[in-house]
Amino acid sequence: MSGNNGFISIQNVDKYFGSFQAINDVSMTVGHGEFFSLLGASGCGKTTLLRMLAGFENPSSGEIYIDGQPMSDVPPHMRPVNMVFQNYAIFPHLNVRDNIAYGLRKQKLPKARRDDMVDEMLELIKLPHYGNRKANQLSGGQRQRIALARALILRPKVLLLDEPLGALDKQLREQMQLELRALQRTVGITFVFVTHDQEEALTLSDRIAVMSRGEVLQLDTPGGLYERPQGREVASFIGTMNFFDGQVRGQTAEAISVEAAGLGVLSIPETKGRFVEGESVQIALRPEKLELMDAAPTDGSESTKGVLQNAAYLGERSHYYVKVDGHETPIAVSAQNRFDGSFAVEEGKPVWLTWRDEAAVVLR
Amino acid sequence: MSVESYIRKPNRPLQLYAAIFLITLYLPVLFLPLFSFNDSLYVRFPLESFTVRWYVELFARDAVWNALWNSVRVGVAVALVSTTMGIFAAKAITRYRMPGKGPVVTFIMLPLVVPLIIFGVALLVLMSQLGVPLSLYTVAIGHMIVCLPFSIAVLIPRFEGFDASIEEASADLGENAWWTFWRVTLPMVGPGVLASLMLTFTVSFDEFILAFFLSGTQPTLPMYIWGQLRFPQEFPSVLALSSIIIVVSFVIVFLGQWINRGAISASTSGDAS
C-alpha cells in the first residue's frame, strides 16, 4: 500500500467546501528532505492543501501518503507532521519553555532530559535566555522562532509552514528566510512551505508548485519556473514578463520559428511541444533579457527600434518602458544602474532593443 | 492620547446625566443600609440614634443561618452545574458549524427575557405532574435554567477572544481533543469560568420567584426574608440582612467582572506586537 515513490505523495485529491471546489484533482510528490513550496494568490487552495497534510481537513476524494502511510484515517494528533501556523498560535498562558516542551508530554521523559532538549532548541533558534518569558513579551520574529522550535523538538517527518514570514517586516523577513533555509539544511526535515510571495518561494525552495483555482499550474525548480514557465498565468505570476502575440512560421527538431508582433522573427529552442505552421502563440520575454541601446547594434544581432516612454528608478536598477510599432503595450526593460552612469532618460527618445532569441519562451 | 482629543473632550451635560442616572439607580438601595443602622422599628425620618443591634439580633437566629446555608448549598450546586454546561454550550456555539444554530442559541438565552413567574408556574406544574416532591433540589433545577444563559453570555466572549488555531496547534503537537481541552481551552477561558461561577452563584443566591414556587419546607434566604416581612417588629432585621446580601452580591459580581476584564486585556495586549 505504498503511495508512489515520493516521501509525501498526494494522489488525485479533490476538496469541496459545500459546492465550492477548493482543490481540483491535485497529484504531486515531495521528496525526502526537500524544501517544497506551494505558491499562489490567496484563495488558490495552497492553505487548504497544507491543512489536509496536517489533518485539519480531509480530502473529499483521493489519498495523501506520508512516508508510505495513507493519512485519511489518521487524526491530526497522530500524524508524523508538525505545523508552524500563520499567526504562530503560541500558547499565551505558557512561557517559552512550556510552549516548546508542549508536545513532549506523551514521551514521558525524565525532567532533566526534557530540559536539555528545550535548551538545545532555544540554542538552535538563538533565543537561549528567553525560556521564562511569556508569549506576550515576545516580538513577531521571536514568536516565529518559538513556533518553529515547538514543532521541530518533536522531530516530525514533515514540517508544514503556513506563510510563517508574512507578518514580519521586510528586513526581518529576509533574515528569517536565510535562517529558515539554513535550519532546514541542519535538521534535514522535509519542509512544505506555503506562501503568496513569489520572491520568497524562489529564494527558499528546492521545488515549487504554483497553484491557482485549486489546481497545480506548474511544478518545477525556481529556475525552471522563472526561465521556462509553462503558461501565461505562471509567466505573469512569477516576476515581470513581456508578452507578444506571435505566429508559428516553422519548426525543426531543435527550434521553432515564430514571428512576434513588434520583435520580428525569432528562432526559439523548443523541443517539447509540437506546433503547426500558422498557429497563434505567445512569446514571453523577461525585462532583464532585453538590452536598451542608443543606436542600432552594429554586430548584426536582432534588434527592434522603439520610443522611450518613461523610466522608473529603483536604486540598484531602473525599469524602462519602450513603445514599439506593432505592439500595443510598452515593453518593460530592466537594466542595472552601473557605475558609468545610467541610461540617459529622455521621453520620446528613439532607442533600440536587443535580445537573444534563446531567452524567449513560447506559450500556447 | 491627550485629554483634549475630540472623542475624549469632557461633556458637562452628559456627565450630569450620568450622575443623575447613577443616583436614581442606587439611592433607593442605599436606604436599606441606612435604616438598618437606625435605632427604631419604623422606617421613617428623622433618624433615631445609631445601632448595630439589628445585626446582632440577626446573628442570634438559627432560622437565618439555616436559610443562609440552604441558599449557599443551592447556589454552589447551581454555579458548578450551570457553568459546566455553559462551558460546553459556549464552546459549541463558538467553534462548531451546525444546522439551526441561531434558533438554538436564542432558545437557550430565552430565560433572560421570559418572566420568571412563567417558568416558576411551568416548573411547578411539571414537578407535580411527575410527582417530584418540592425541595431544595427542585429550586436548584429552576435556578439552573435561569443561570445557564448568564454563564453562556459570560463565556462566549472568552471563547471568541482566542483564535481556534491555538487549539489546532495543540492537536498538531500530539494532544487529542480531551487533553487539548485541559491543557489549552480551559486555561484560556479560565477567568471567564471564574466570572461565570461567581455570577451564577449570585443570581441563584438572590433569586426569589422560582424559589417561592419550587421550594418545599426548606426556605432559601430570600424566602426567609419574604416570610419575615409579615412581622413589623422583624422589619429592621430584614433591612440588616438585605444590606449584607447586597454588599456581598456587589463584591462577588464586581470581583468576577474584574477578573474577566483583566484577563481579556492581558490576552489581547499580547497580540499587539
UniProtKB/TrEMBL annotation, chain A:
Biological-process GO terms, alphabetical: putrescine transport
Stored InterPro entries: AAA+_ATPase, ABC_SmlMolc_Importer, ABC_transporter-like_ATP-bd, ABC_transporter-like_CS, Mo/tungstate-bd_C_term_dom, NA-bd_OB-fold, P-loop_NTPase, PotA-like
Domain of life: Bacteria
EC number(s) stated in the UniProt entry for this protein: 7.6.2.11
EC supergroup of this enzyme: translocase
Keywords: ATP-binding, Cell inner membrane, Cell membrane, Hydrolase, Membrane, Nucleotide-binding, Translocase, Transport
Catalytic activity line of the entry: ATP + H2O + polyamine-[polyamine-binding protein]Side 1 = ADP + phosphate + polyamineSide 2 + [polyamine-binding protein]Side 1
SUPFAM superfamilies found in the cross-reference section: MOP-like (SSF50331), P-loop containing nucleoside triphosphate hydrolases (SSF52540)
Domain ABC transporter: 8-238
Pfam families hit by this protein: ABC_tran, TOBE_2
Transmembrane segments: none
Family of the protein in this entry: Belongs to the ABC transporter superfamily. Spermidine/putrescine importer (TC 3.A.1.11.1) family.
Role description: Part of the ABC transporter complex PotABCD involved in spermidine/putrescine import. Responsible for energy coupling to the transport system.
PANTHER family in alphabetical order: PUTRESCINE TRANSPORT ATP-BINDING PROTEIN POTG, SPERMIDINE/PUTRESCINE IMPORT ATP-BINDING PROTEIN POTA
Name of this protein: Spermidine/putrescine import ATP-binding protein PotA
Organism lineage: Bacteria, Pseudomonadati, Pseudomonadota, Alphaproteobacteria, Rhodobacterales
Gene: potA_7
Automatic annotation (TrEMBL), chain B:
Transmembrane segments: 16-37, 74-93, 105-128, 134-156, 235-255
Protein topology in the membrane: Multi-pass membrane protein
Matching SUPFAM superfamilies: MetI-like
Range of residues in the leader sequence: none
Pfam family, one: BPD_transp_1
Alphabetic keyword roster: Cell membrane, Membrane, Transmembrane, Transmembrane helix, Transport
InterPro entries with a match to the protein in the record: Bact_Polyamine_Transport (IPR051789), MetI-like (IPR000515), MetI-like_sf (IPR035906)
GO CC term (a single one): plasma membrane
Gene3D superfamilies: MetI-like
Family: Belongs to the binding-protein-dependent transport system permease family. CysTW subfamily.
Gene Ontology BP, a term: transmembrane transport
Protein name (database record): Inner membrane ABC transporter permease protein YdcV
Compartment annotation: Cell membrane
Segments forming domain ABC transmembrane type-1: 68-256
